[in-house]
Amino acid sequence: MQRLRAFIEHLRDELGVPYPLAHARPWVGPGRHLFISAQEQVGLPPELWACVERQGG
Description:
Layout: H1 2-15, H2 31-41
């Protein structure tokens, strides 16, 4: 739970929105890369990731 809080706080700072998981920016377009990077930076275990990059098409 502590890592999830750190992840959400990181997104709040980067996106400038109070509720980043309820905001569209991290889920679509280039914002998704920020989301993936934030998961990695705070050390969120992969089983808790909300967004992953899909390989191929």
